[in-house]
Design a protein that fits this description.
Length: about 325
C-alpha cells in the first residue's frame, strides 16, 4: 500500500473545459461616457428587439435631445412605421411617456419622459403618496363625537327618591373677567386683480393687437406673449373707442418705465385700467349747426352767389333802399 503508483493518468487530462457553444463575454474597462441599462429591459420578454434598442439609445442621449419619430428614422435604418410601433411598445410597458404641454407663447409641444426603471418609479411614487396621506391624516383634527341621546324624564309615579324642589328664578353667575392677550395684527388681504376695461364693439381689436405687438420696438422689455396680447387687446380697444389716438396710447404705456421691469404684462394692465380716459361728450345739435357752414345759393334777383340755408334773394335784393344808401355813402 505504501508503494508509489506511476501508472495513474495525469491530472490535466481530467480538467473540465467550457462548452464551445453559447455566449462568451470579453469585458474591458470603459472610458467615461457609458449608460447603465437594467436587465429588466435588456431581457424583457414582451418587448421586441427594436424597442429594447430604442429604449437603450434614448437613455444614452443627453437631457433635452429630440426623440421624435422623424429624428429617430433619420438615425436608424428602420422606417417610421416600425419606429412608431416600437415607441408604442415602450409606452405600453412604462418605459416611455409622451405628454402634451403648452408653452408661454401658446404653442403645443410634446414632452417625452424616459424611465430607466418604471417599476421602481411606481413603487417610490406609491410610498410618497402613502406618506403624504399619513401626514395629512395626522394634522387633521379628529371628527367630533356624536352627542349621546338624552334619556326621557322618569314618570312621577315611578320615582322612589325625594321630589326635587320646584325650579326657582334662575340666577345667572356673573362672568369672570378674563384678561385678553393682545393679538398680532392680521396681514391685509390681497387686493383683487383690476378689472380690465372692455369695449362695446370689436371694431378696434385688430389695431389694438398690432399696437401691443409693436411695443417691443419702443422698448425690448415689452415683449409680450400671444396670451398676454389676447388678454390686453380689449383694454387697448376700449381706449381707441373713447377717441384716444394710437400714438397717445403708446405714449401712455411706454412713458416713464421703471429701470427694473419683471412683469411687463402686469404693468400694462395696471396702466390701461388706471389711466383710462373718459369717453368724449356728445356734441349738442346747436353746436353742430353753428360749426356747419350754410350752403351756397344763387340769388333769384341778381344771380349772385350767397350763403343761406334755403334758396331765395340775397340781402341787397331784399333791401334795395339800404343797398342804395350804402352806395351813396361810399360815393
Amino acid at each position: 500500500m505504501a508503494e508509489q503508483q506511476f501508472n495513474a493518468p495525469a491530472r490535466a487530462r481530467y480538467d473540465v473545459h467550457r462548452s464551445p457553444v453559447g455566449v462568451h463575454k470579453v469585458t474591458e474597462f470603459q472610458d467615461p461616457g457609458y449608460t447603465i441599462v437594467g436587465n429588466h429591459l435588456t431581457q424583457h420578454r414582451s418587448l421586441s428587439g427594436l424597442a429594447i434598442g430604442l429604449a437603450a439609445y434614448i437613455q444614452s442621449l443627453p437631457e433635452g435631445a429630440p426623440v421624435d419619430i422623424r429624428t429617430l428614422a433619420r438615425r436608424f435604418p428602420e422606417g417610421r412605421g416600425r419606429i412608431a410601433a416600437a415607441l408604442r411598445e415602450l409606452e405600453a410597458h412604462g418605459y416611455l411617456e409622451r405628454v402634451r404641454r403648452r408653452t408661454d407663447d401658446g404653442r403645443l409641444v410634446t414632452l417625452t419622459i424616459s424611465y430607466n426603471n418604471p417599476a421602481a418609479t411606481r413603487a417610490r411614487r406609491a410610498r410618497e403618496t402613502a406618506e403624504q396621506a399619513k401626514r395629512r391624516t395626522a394634522t387633521e383634527p379628529p371628527p367630533p363625537k356624536p352627542a349621546a341621546p338624552a334619556s326621557p324624564p322618569e314618570p312621577a309615579h315611578l320615582r322612589t327618591g325625594p321630589t326635587p324642589p320646584p325650579p326657582g328664578p334662575s340666577v345667572h353667575p356673573q362672568p369672570t373677567q378674563t384678561r385678553q392677550t393682545p393679538q398680532a395684527p392680521r396681514a391685509p388681504a390681497p387686493s383683487p386683480a383690476p378689472h380690465l376695461p372692455e369695449p362695446r364693439t370689436r371694431a378696434h381689436h385688430p389695431p389694438a393687437a398690432a399696437l401691443l405687438a409693436n411695443l417691443r420696438r419702443d422698448d425690448p422689455r415689452l415683449l409680450l406673449s400671444v396670451r398676454d396680447i389676447q388678454r390686453l387687446t380689449p383694454s387697448v380697444a376700449a381706449w381707441l373707442e373713447r377717441g384716444a389716438s394710437p400714438d397717445a396710447v403708446r405714449s401712455a404705456l411706454t412713458a416713464g418705465l421703471p429701470p427694473t421691469l419683471r412683469y411687463p404684462a402686469a404693468l400694462l394692465a395696471h396702466r390701461l385700467t388706471e389711466l383710462l380716459p373718459p369717453p368724449l361728450p356728445a356734441a349738442s345739435p346747436a353746436a353742430a349747426t353753428r360749426a356747419r357752414a350754410a350752403p351756397l345759393q344763387t340769388c333769384d334777383g341778381c344771380d349772385r352767389a350767397f350763403r343761406a340755408p334755403a334758396p331765395g334773394r340775397c340781402r341787397d335784393c331784399r333791401h334795395p333802399a339800404a343797398a342804395k344808401q350804402g352806395a351813396a355813402d361810399d360815393g
